[in-house]
Amino acid sequence: MRTEQAGAASLGGDHVSPPGIRLGGIGDEAGPAWADQLAAITTLGWPQIELRNIDGVALADLEPAAFDRVVSTLDAAGLAVSCVDSRIGNWASTIDTPLAEDLRELTVLGDRCAALGTRLVRVMSYPNAGLDEEEWGRRVIDRLGTLAGHAERLGLVLVHENCVGWAGRDADRMLRLLGEVESPALRLLFDVGNGIAYDYDSYELLEQIVDRVAHVHVKDGLGDPTTQEYTLPGEGRCRVADCLALLLRHGYTGAWSIEPHVLLRPHTGEDRTAEFDGVGAFVAYGRRLERLIRDELPGPAGIDASPAGLVGRSA
Description:
It contains eleven helices and 16 strands. The protein has helices at about 35-45, 65-75, 100-115, 135-155, 170-180, 195-200, 200-210, 240-250, 280-295, 300, 305-310, and strands at about 10, 15, 20-25, 50, 55, 55-60, 80-85, 120-125, 155-165, 185-190, 215-220, 220-225, 230, 255-260, 265, 270. Helix 1 packs parallel to helix 9 (about 280-295). The protein is globular and about 45 Å long. The two termini are about 20 Å apart.
């Protein structure tokens, strides 16, 4: 199995990603079928995939034989895994969800991440369950501290996404969470497009947390917390190019993993990938990100993204 340190993606022989950056995407955004997820990434020619659900089943719930098939097909395709997306702390849970459920999932993912060659596990910080703000925060910090300790023993790193939960949309809370847990097994995942649904400016948030980011999702769109329309990267209001350039200026190296949400929105149950060719939409999204990297990053990031400058670069 290739590790998450795989080389930069290429298209037509020219490296597309800036130095130190590896392009990938959350596979099930192309469709639930594992074959479609593989087809989307391999058509793009990118080196890695992010795993969430396989054939409609959460990675931690796959039967052993099904998981073994995932590993073998990834090996055959030469694909690395950048991160796995757990259900820990997400929109389907609350702070009252039994801790034992999360510890069980994390334990299973410990073994599976070792087989997949990745250490990163996406988590969130738990929707409230009627508690006052201070008690909610205290319990989130305690719980993620326990989970980070378990992750450290398993050789994993939890990456907390700026999404639902106590610390999901507030940089001060994110930094407080990291400071109070104080574990090398807890870092941040920055999703460029989450500010639309949760009513904050993603770029302004990133400015405050950029040095603590260990993984990145690329998403863009228009709208507000009541109604969202997700777009190709660079066609919404999330300042995708500015965010990516800021990450580069601060020395970020790692994945830029697309999560289009154009046809799939897991938190609402909406899935139109079969109706509208999820693989084709995923590939189109990836190609638009490649163009954005080439055309829009040189100025703000100081990167030579011309064809001559891209040839021969590696992560």
